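A brief tutorial aside. Many learners find it easier to grasp structure tokens once they have seen a single protein encoded end to end. The record that follows does exactly this for ABC transporter permease. Read the sequence first, then the structure, and try to relate runs of similar tokens to stretches of the chain.
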Amino acid sequence: MRLVDFLSNNGSELLVKTWEHFYISLFAILLGIIVAVPLGIALTRIPRVAGFVIGVVGVVQTFPSLAILAFFIPILGVGQIPAVTALFFYSVLPILRNTYTGVKDVDKDLIEAGRGMGMSSWERIKGIEVPLATPIIMAGIRVSTVYLIGWATLASFTGAGGLGDYIFLGLNLYRPDYIIAGAIPVTILAFLTDLLLGRIEHKLVPKGIQQSEKAA
């Protein structure tokens, strides 16, 4: 009954909190894609540096999320900016690692064929390497996005809003209805976003690769 009462009294606010949670996560993952995909491609050109860079990013991701949030608050203040910045750091590793692996493992014969056709390095990246690596890159983006939607509950500590407000308020007040009202939309949001990214992946992956995967 408490949950029903909560929804009847806070239904509109719940929608606002869900939207806040979504765009905080979305902004962070978009920043991660913008940084990690080009960096992953660039690292395939300098493999000696790749291991070091990916290792450093991996170490950063092992830092406790609350510690990263606390680190950025004195620099960026409170609100959504420190929350998005902290989530951005957590988004980078899966996307970077998958982009590097996917592009690096593209069949070298295909790259040589492109070079033999007179394609420039940029044309080979755009026309051969990235399209063939898209399934692996998208896998990293999907994993990172699902994680970020869950981690975005911690944005409540910086006053950024989102569904974490309900979860932590429920913990402080010993109100399970608040906790459930925050946790269930997070789960649904992660599930729906993953489905949407799956559809986007299906559109981006070349049909030849999809057919070969089905045949395998």
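Self-check: The first helix runs from residue 2 to 43. If you spotted this yourself, you are ready for the next section.
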